[in-house]
Structure formats: C-alpha cells, structure tokens
Amino acid sequence: MRISTKGRYGLRALIDIAVNSETEPVSISSIGERQSVSTSYLEQLISKMKKAGFLDSVRGVNGGYMLARAPEEISIGDVLRTLEDGLTPANCLGDECGSADFCVEKVVWERINESVNAAVDSLWLQDLIQAQKEFQNEVERENCTL
Amino acid sequence: MRISTKGRYGLRALIDIAVNSETEPVSISSIGERQSVSTSYLEQLISKMKKAGFLDSVRGVNGGYMLARAPEEISIGDVLRTLEDGLTPANCLGDECGSADFCVEKVVWERINESVNAAVDSLWLQDLIQAQKEFQNEVERENCTL
DNA sequence: TAATACCATAGTAGTTAACTAGGATTTAAA
DNA sequence: TTTAAATCCTAGTTAACTACTATGGTATTA
What we know:
The structure is a homodimer of 146-residue chains.
Chain A: H1 5-20, H2 28-35, H3 39-51, E1 55-58, E2 64-67, H4 76-84, H5 100-103, H6 105-121, H7 125-137
Antiparallel strand pairs in A: 1-2
Helix pairs in contact in A: 1-3, 1-4, 2-3, 4-6
The first copy, chain A, binds a DNA duplex (30 and 30 nucleotides) through residues 4-6, 25, 27-29, 37-38, 40-41, 43-44, 47, 50, 57-65.
C-alpha cells in the first residue's frame, strides 16, 4: 500500500505555491527548479488541481498559479483524492465480486477506507504550511530519520 | 493506493482455513480449488502466515494447515502487515529525504499510517468469520454491489 | 516578442506485482 | 517398502503499471 508520486509531488507543489505566491503568481518552471521535478510532469498535476478548484492562474508573461482559497479551507483529503484519483484501498467491483467468500473482505476494506479518509479530511493545507514553518525554524535541524 | 493480492488472497485463505479446519487440517490444494488461486502462490502466502505464528501445519499425506491461535486472538492488522510486509503508505527513507520541503509530508503520511493501523488492529479474525456466516445466512443474498 | 498558461496524447524505461516452475522433504496408507 | 499426497523452499518469468519524457502545439499578455 503506497501513495504515488502524483500525491507526493502534487502536494509539495501546492505547498510551494501557497508559500511563494504572496507577492506574485508562481510559475511551473520555478516550482520545478525548487522541487527538482520536470515541468511537464508538474503541469499534469497542477492542471488537475486547478480543475478541482484549489488553484487560480494568470496567463502570459509573469503569470503563474496561486491558491484559489484560503489554506484553512483546502482539505488535504480533497487534494489527495484529486491527485490520486481516489484513495480507496481496493476495488470490490472486479469480476471476482459476487462470490460469497470474497465479499467478506468488504468489512476490512471499508474500515480502512473510512479511516484513511477521516485522517486526511481532518488535515488542512494550513496545517502543513505551519508544520513546514516550524520545521524550517529549527536552525540546527536534524535530518529526517523517521 | 491499494492493497495487493497478497493481502486479499492471504486473508481469504486464512478465513478458509479457520472455517474448514474443525475436523482435519486444510490442504493448500483444497483452498486453491475453493478460492480459485494457484497452489504455488497460496503456498508463499500461507508459509508467511505460518512463520508469523498464525498457522500450524501437519506434513505428509492428509496433512494441511490449521489456526495456531483462537480467531479472537488473531488481529487482522498483524495478518495484513505480515502479508504485505507492512502497511505504511510511503517511505520517508529514500535519498530525497533530508530536504526540508520533503519532510513536511511526514505529517500526512504519519497520520494516514496511524489511522490505517488503528483500523485494522481493532478487527479480529473472529469478526470476519462472523461476518461471513451472517452473509451466507442471507438465503436470498444480494450481489455485492458496493 | 518572449514568457507563460493550457491542452492532448503518445512513448518508454524501470519497477513491481503476480504469478510460475521445479524440486526437496515428510509421512500416511497401500 | 513403495507410493502418493502433502508441506517446504528458492528462483525465475511475465505482465501490468508507474513515473515520467517528449512532442507539438494554441492562447494570452507584459
């Protein structure tokens, strides 16, 4: 069970935009440089987030992206579901389904599903921005050794 | 984000053994027939569960597997972590790690992780056996249309 | 005019999941 | 004592998918 780079890079890009768009819109190329991700790949992810209503854009020279809503109002759950095309852990829709034995697993998957959604729905972009600020304030910061 | 066939087939096999081992050990070939999974693949999954202490075995003719503990004492969390080699949604261990930006994501992954583990740790094999019995008791059972 | 968003789709390389293959060992039963 | 049914063990193979990359544009605007 894992979350793909879509979720990871997309979320990072969103945080990047939130942090850097105070004075002017943030271009994809500048995000790409900071995050070391190709502009082409970022384009795909950011486009999804714009369509989903998390971002606004300005076209033309000096254009770029900015948040469409306050970071307190952007749910990480909504963002991840957008980027990952849903977060459900397994599909109970395949051709196997319909067998009595199989459907018992529904109990498990539903419980996991509910719990994952509840976890990410109680997190907001603002929380992550805050966490990042705190992290950066640690001057002698320890490496991430989770 | 998904759970692999290891978790699915393995869990099904465990339920199968629990249900069918009252009089004699359950052979891999009989599970394979009931669940439509190859014996070779099942072997690997069941072997893991045996090593993890959920199953006992009897070798030789008429041998097979049975639960090593009561189904009330087998946690679905333990089983899935065994089968899937952990349930963590992403690794914060790669070479990217160490960058300040990246580690913000830890907040998200940790929260998901805790919540998934809590969900499956509060489910026990007995609960699934019970759910299966109830399911089968519905004589006119509706198809699984989750 | 150049920098940007916006759009679509195809290709491709690497990784991983999902299985397959083949044999060694144990043991009840013929 | 032989046989066949079973567990046990380790590799190998294949198919799907992820994670990009590439291409080639059009539209917009400082």
